[in-house]
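Input/output pair, single chain:
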Amino acid sequence: MNEPKCPFSTYNRDGSMRFNANGGGTPNYEPNSFGGPTQDPKYVERPTTYGTSTVGRFSHREHDGDYYTQPGNLFRRMTAEQRKRLIGNIAGVLSQTPRNIQERQLEHFFKADPAYGEGVARALGIPVKELAAAR
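Output:
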């Protein structure tokens, strides 16, 4: 079989010659709410220097704290029809997730624009008053 002889873990799955279960339906991304993989810091790539510049991985979360202005601005620029389609698409997919994940995601929509959060909450059938009490 085309597979390594020693165990290893990566986020790559389901290659073209894969015939075993290969993790099945378990999540292969981090972070997640289902106990999936976590990054082991001892395997992080070391920074490399090219000329006078250093190239390496960095956490964008340490340098950028504004995740809501740009999506909020985009939502406000949309026409009523575009907003309706966006909210319908998001609610259609989000309706297949557990309630606690829906509520966590709704927090992000509310931070981007209150009308955005309210629209998705209504489409999911979650009372906005109930969410406000939880926040």
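The beta strands are 48-50, 53-55. The mean pLDDT is 85.
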